[in-house]
Amino acid sequence: MKSVQISFFVLVLTIFRVRNSRCDSPLVLDYYKETCPHLEEMVQRIVEIAVLEDPRMAASLLRLHFHDCFVMGCDASVLLDDFENVISEKEAGPNLNSLRGFEVIDEIKYVVEESCPATVSCADIITIAARDSVVLRGGPGWDVLLGRRDSLTASFNGANQFIPAPNSTLDSLIADFQQQGLDTGDLVALSGSHTLGKARCLSFRQRIYDYNSEEKYGYHERDEEYLSALRSLCPRSGRDNTLAPLDLKTPARFDNHYFINIIEGRGLLISDNELVDQGLQWEIRKHVFAYASNQEYFFYSFVNSMIKMGNVNVLTGNKGEIRKNCRFVNSYTI
Ligand code: HEM
Ligand SMILES: *[C@@H]1O[C@H](CO)[C@@H](O)[C@H](O)[C@H]1NC(C)=O
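Above: inputs. Below: predicted complex with 2-acetamido-2-deoxy-beta-D-glucopyranose.
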């Protein structure tokens, strides 16, 4: 009887905590309901056309949201070009010759400004476009919380400092996510984004020639054919921009194959392989195996972590502004 009482108490507490954590977000579902009721249809239509023309664009728009949120929060700082004393994040190491999708965001912003002038933030547009991209490639859908405002500046140094490098150790990946208020569960679920898109030889060269496997389980050495295929694609020097798919098996589908890949030794980046290669981090590997065997569970966790990432350091109220042109702050364009 007593244990029944206790479980009931725990249940009530859990429900309260789940509800409460949702209410913690300063963002809301129906933010533009009155001011721009057709916003999500407009974004979806343009993302759909962009992905039809260039299938990789789905991956690129998803990554754009990540690189926005990890630098000063999800505030569209990543979209700013160089002007006056702002140094664009676009030129930082993780973004240079790599981050894509800026023209698609410009196009969405142009269309949205026609119907709802000076109303919708660039940061919200990126977030909706990222969700739509996942859905278009067969991934899960979710309701996007809205109400972000756009930053008045960018952080070139922040982009170099806070976006994890492809050769990061697991400890530094964990630290990088923790810095954003994201935990190890978020790290594993969000890394599942590498079910889409491509990486340059430059990003995976160390993984195929110089990945120190000492004190590691050696998962990344399991598929020698994969390794030699990558080596012939990406020599020790040169061909820096040659591309390889992050998910060899189902590169165009948003699914859980990424997790199966890394268990089988087919993770493209060191950061991917680290999720299973580090013997001491059983907690993390447990997530990898769970997602590899249960796609629904991966989708469920991915959605939760995307919502969490989309809340990182958002600007609301009278902070920031609603940019008219996503590439410049309003005081500059006027
Ligand atoms: C865990 C740490 C992460 C590291 C170290 C990392 C690193 C990278 C690197 C190096 C590339 C290839 C860039 C290039 O060579 O041009 C890449 C691509 C990509 N990343 Fe990540 N990433 C991480 C997490 C994430 C997260 C959290 C997301 C999304 C929520 C994401 C989404 C993507 C996508 C979709 C691509 C392919 C982009 C395209 O084809 O245009 N990544 N990532
Ligand atoms: C990652 O790569 C950078 C640039 O090539 C290098 O300076 C750094 O030492 C590498 N880090 C690790 C942990 O291997």
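Residues 56, 59-60, 62-63, 66, 98, 100, 164-166, 168, 173, 190-191, 193-194, 196-200, 203, 246, 269, 271 surround protoporphyrin IX containing FE (ligand 1) (CB under 6 Å).
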